[in-house]
Design a protein that fits this description.
2 domains; Endonuclease Iii, domain 2; elongated; 0% strand; mainly alpha; 12 helices; Endonuclease III, domain 1
Length: 224
């Protein structure tokens, strides 16, 4: 089967295994989601959540964050790591957003064309395609497919992409190969699959329903 057929098959198998996840927005506003996603870069969900909690505790409104010194923002989000870089990204984006639209609000992204919205977000240093896609998928319900570390690893092992494919290249691949209408379900189920079965260090190939599709398994636990 070709790549599109294979993706549809894998998506179907994962839904059989894990079910179809309900779409949930745990992030509040679109701007909340964007900033939480910036905080999530190169860290885990626990540290992201802690950093966000401290940030909104010290600065109850995004306008206060905009008016704060970068070092103050960095101090609040330190637990998420890369505090200097992330605080500058947040500060610069808020400054741009207020100057461009006169308010700190991204709700218009819910009805904006996803490609245009992605381009608008990615023009800002520190906001890449994964950050943009997570915001658009989870806060706006757009049919885009974020590629995290689990999905990148699984995509290589199953053979959708080569072992040398970058995350940005993987996003481009999945933009044309994700089964129609399945972006959220496929994304969430791949993450669960990556955590429970296709783990980074010790994948549980003995219980995996996808070994017949997996080049990693065919090559004895090695990527070609």
């Amino acid at each position: 089967m070709d790549g599109i057929q294979k993706a549809a098959y894998v998506s179907s198998e994962l839904e059989r295994l894990f079910g179809i996840p309900n779409r949930q927005n745990e992030y509040g506003t679109v701007l909340d989601c964007l900033i939480e996603t910036i905080l999530s870069q190169n860290t885990n969900d626990v540290n992201r959540d802690r950093a966000f909690k401290v940030l909104i505790g010290r600065f109850p409104s995004w306008m206060e964050v905009l008016n704060a010194d970068v070092n103050q923002i960095g101090s609040a989000i330190r637990i998420a790591g890369l505090a200097g870089q992330k605080s500058l990204t947040i500060k610069n984006f808020l400054v741009w957003l207020y100057a461009e639209f006169g308010k700190l609000d991204l709700e218009f992204l819910r009805t904006m064309d996803p490609e245009e919205a992605t381009q608008m977000l990615c023009q800002h240093k520190g906001i890449g395609i994964k950050t943009a896609y997570v915001t658009l998928a989870f806060a706006c319900g757009h049919e885009v497919f974020p590629v995290d570390t689990h999905i990148l690893r699984i995509s290589k092992r199953i053979g959708f992409i080569s072992s040398k494919t970058t995350a940005d290249q993987a996003h481009k691949f999945w933009s044309t190969h994700c089964p129609a209408g399945k972006a959220y379900s496929f994304h969430m189920n791949l993450i669960v699959f990556g955590r429970q079965v296709c783990q980074a260090r010790k994948p549980k190939c003995e219980i995996c329903p996808l070994t017949d599709q997996c080049v990693y398994f065919e090559n004895g636990g090695q990527l070609p």
